[in-house]
Amino acid sequence: MVLQGTPRGMIGRVKLAVRPLYANVYLLSTPAGRLLVDSGALSHAPRFARLLREFRPDALLLTHAHVDHAGNAFLAQRAGVPVLAHPLEHPALLGQVHDLPYPSGFPALGRVISRAHPKLRAVQAAPPGQDVLGWQVVPLPGHTPGQIGLLRDGVLIAGDAVVGGADGAHLPRAAYNHDHAQALSTLKGLLALDLREIWPGHGGRLTPEQIRARAERVDG
């Protein structure tokens, strides 16, 4: 099922659609089932609730725990949808830690924002190498310690390992990355994955050439 009015494509027998709910939410229809990737920001909760009813996912995978990507995950869990994430992201998703890198320079306010978001009761592990409905979990650390993406047939759903803009590929601001040097290393590592297209956590689809142009910049 591909919801009308959304950017979409075909990857073999897989249908991909995108819903921008501040961060991109990906809807993957595969022969093995329906998978959501990320849940968007809490301010878009009504739209995400409707998406859950229409798409009826078998699972929700979170690329990382930042609230603009995981803000509505509690709605999926409330609907009985299993939620998966890298184990390093579990403490934030469960409300055991409240570190948030934005607003930049105001860590105390970031903790207040984190505490104001509903948390999950449980999260299933999605370690690198695991198969999730036909997609391979790949590690993309740097923006957060446990950020992951999904890879299938040369197509990567990349979380915030890269951001799409009108002028090509970008990294999130250094202040928003847990480890900016590692984030840059992860971006350069994408060049070894033999990718055809890259779908970022924010912005539109990117090409390997756009990734290479950003990775080869000398200003970090």
CATH class annotation: Alpha Beta
Q: Percent of residues in beta strands?
A: 25-35%
CATH level-3 fold name: Metallo-beta-lactamase, Chain A
Q: State the end-to-end CA separation.
A: 40 Å
| Low-confidence residue ranges | 1-5
How many domains? 1
Order of neighbouring strands in the sheet with most strands: 1-2-3-4-5-6-7
Helix content: 10-25%
Total beta strands: 14
Count helical runs.
7
Mind telling me which CATH architecture this is? 4-Layer Sandwich
H/E element sequence = EEEEHEHHEHHEEEEEEEHEH
From the spread of the alpha carbons, the general shape counts as: globular
- Determine the CATH superfamily: Ribonuclease Z/Hydroxyacylglutathione hydrolase-like
Mean pLDDT: 92
Major β-sheet profile: 7 strands, mixed
Task: List the topology elements.
Blueprint: E1 8-11, E2 14-21, E3 23-30, E4 33-37, H1 45-55, E5 59-61, H2 67-70, H3 73-78, E6 83-85, H4 90-93, H5 107-115, E7 124-125, E8 131-132, E9 135-139, E10 148-152, E11 155-157, E12 163-165, E13 168-170, H6 180-189, E14 197-199, H7 208-215
Helix pairs in contact: 6-7
